[in-house]
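Reminder: ligand-aware prediction takes two inputs, not one.
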Amino acid sequence: MTYLTKPKFHHPSLPTNKLGFTRRDYEAGNSTLCAGCGHDSISAAIIEACYELAIEPHRVAKISGIGCSSKTPDYFLGQSHGFNSVHGRMPSVLTGANLANRDLIYLGVSGDGDSASIGFGQFAHAMRRGVNMTYIVENNGVYGLTKGQFSATADRGSKSKKGATNTDSSIDLVAIALQLGATFVGRSFSGDKTQLVPLIKAAIEHQGAAFIDVISPCIAFNNHEGSTKSFDYVREHNEAVNMLDIMIGRETIKVDYEPGKVVTVQQHDGTYLRLRKLNDEYDPSDRLAAQNFLARHAAKGEVVTGLLYIDPEADDLHAHAGTVKAALNTLGEKELCPGQGALDKLNAGLR
Ligand SMILES: Cc1ncc(C[n+]2csc(CCOP(=O)(O)OP(=O)(O)O)c2C)c(N)n1
Ligand code: SF4
Ligand SMILES: [Mg+2]
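Here is what comes back for the chain with magnesium ion:
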């Protein structure tokens, strides 16, 4: 496809957020993905979330691996920092950047191939270390960019476009993230913007490792009958346990809902999340119960979506490692080179 530059001008009466930015200011280049690809809807949801949160674009670092999904940071937040790394290596590149500059908002964008195969170990360690980031996997069950091989998230028994059956067990990244200690875990669907946008907003606000698995159908290679990652399959088997609606803020907002239907979660930094319960049985603050619930429903072929787990007391890698509170690029020579005395003390402590 010929690449066309988007015109920069826009209608003067477009709505703006509290920084004076329009949605257009959070867009970037034209997508070169297949028309109808689920990944483009996720880019639109990220744009909407950042617009609504009134994030200053220069405060965001978007980092990805390789794949159609990993190409998408080129299509949103054109004024943010970006790094398209190597296949499966987004988590380690992001961890390094985060350790060097804790003041940025980190958005990791990956695919199911990128995170559940070559980058599986990297994914695991970012989650268990609590890297403060929003980790989005655009999950289509195939390697889209390399023409539709089954990925490790493809369900056993599901069929390829050409009719081959997947005989391997699948990896559920949500179950793994829960097991590894991620402090915010959600699942959504690229076709459900109402659920996805607030989930992304909440993940960005969360201080710690926030993981969102977004089922994102690949219309070129995995949207046929027999696939469990097609638009039709996900719509028919979607079991949403809750919806985040009025959310994020430091002041309590009064909500007019039936008692018991809304749960307010106050996070460590004082922000509130408001969850509308769709399933009375589901408690997103209970990690073990969430694991059980997911496994039971997965066995029935259901795709459980919503905010599946949140630890309101979460903290991150910087807190665990006791790092300096400032971004390293703000430190002067005195702090960076404290002198021979400090080095001798450090060495003595290691003897
Ligand atoms: C080290 C390395 N191994 C293999 C590849 C080939 N490769 C490129 S993208 C990809 C898989 C992409 O799948 P996924 O992450 O699910 O992204 P999608 O295209 O489906 O969005 C593979 C195997 C590569 N680029 N680099
Ligand atoms: S091949 Fe699949 S994943 Fe890649 S752009 Fe096309 S529809 Fe999207
Ligand atoms: Mg994929």
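The CA atoms of residues 6 and 134 lie 27 Å apart. The longest strand covers residues 303-310. We will return to this case in the review session.
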